[in-house]
Design goal:
- This protein is of the alpha+beta class and 350 residues long.
- 34% of the residues lie in helices and 18% in strands.
- It has eleven helices and eleven strands.
- The strands form four sheets. Strands 1-2-3-5-4 form a five-stranded antiparallel beta sheet.
- A hairpin with a 4-residue loop joins strand 9 (219-223) and strand 10 (228-231).
- It catalyses: N(6)-D-ribulosyl-L-lysyl-[protein] + ATP = N(6)-(3-O-phospho-D-ribulosyl)-L-lysyl-[protein] + ADP + H(+).
Amino acid sequence: MADLDEGVVKVLPSLKRVLEVKASGESAWAKATRVDVEHEDGSTESYFMKVSKGLHGRESLKGEFESTSAIYAITPQFCPKPIAWGTFESDPDSHFYICKFYDFVEDELPAPKAFGASLAKLHSSHTSPSGQFGFHVVTYNGDLPQDNSWSESWEAFFLNGVQHVLRIREQRGGKCSELDDLLPDMFEKVIPRLLRPLETGGNHIEPSLVHGDLWCGNAAMVDEDTEEGIIYDPSSFWGHNELIGQLAPGTQQYFNAYHAHCPKSAPEEDYDDRNALYAMVIEEMRRLIEKFPNGYEGSQPRADILRHQQLNSTSFNVNTDKEADGGEQPVSQDFHSLVSGEVYTSQVAN
């Protein structure tokens, strides 16, 4: 049907015929396509399809489908409706992810008030299936596989995730002395100082389903009259709800709208520094190291954090990102851009 692989045709619901298939954007590791169809009842609909190759391509699309499905289960109006993911019948090395297609309002983000309310609703559903921080599948931030191993502690989960990304960064881009010089103090002082108080001293945070890569390139207005929008291209996990992302310009408006529904975590005085930690920008890392030279000065670490540190003490420099598909991967020397990944330039991606 209209040059559409049979593996895709089989998962499209109530399909009568494919009307048109046309390209709508691409990145270094995926291509985007719009698929217009007619259903058996005579109605028409458009789908967005992303196609990637190789093992990492397959796993990234699986992760996107599972992430979007989890978001859709909580806030169906706040993300594209996921349809399916799978593998081409004509090419076992090509894989696809399909969701509802949207025409975005060009160069417009959703209005802060409605967006903040929707994001707060997503984060307020503390329904992690294990009750822990993590996710049930690997998700990808751009072309970077995230370690979503379950953990009882947000500090342990965050530390493990950062170290995992750094191992990949070193393998793909080589050593970066500027960054490497900062890491011991970040791991031993800054991260414990800013995250451990969230879970000690009578404080507690519950896992929230977060987008994982939320910025202005992964959110869009879809209704000009209501100024409402959606989020897309997630690399989700159950984490700390304050890991919101950056919707610049005007980021503060979105934070204010969000916190009108979700209060800042205690200790509130650490809020700005926690956000700086989550951004992982080198300049902010230096500032945090200077601000907290003594690190965490409270009680002893939780047992699960000690176990995590012991498991990782001898494995940090070990290469764990085996390129199973044998393909070359894009390299980034900058930590922040490595974590952020690459996005589609097309207005109609996802």
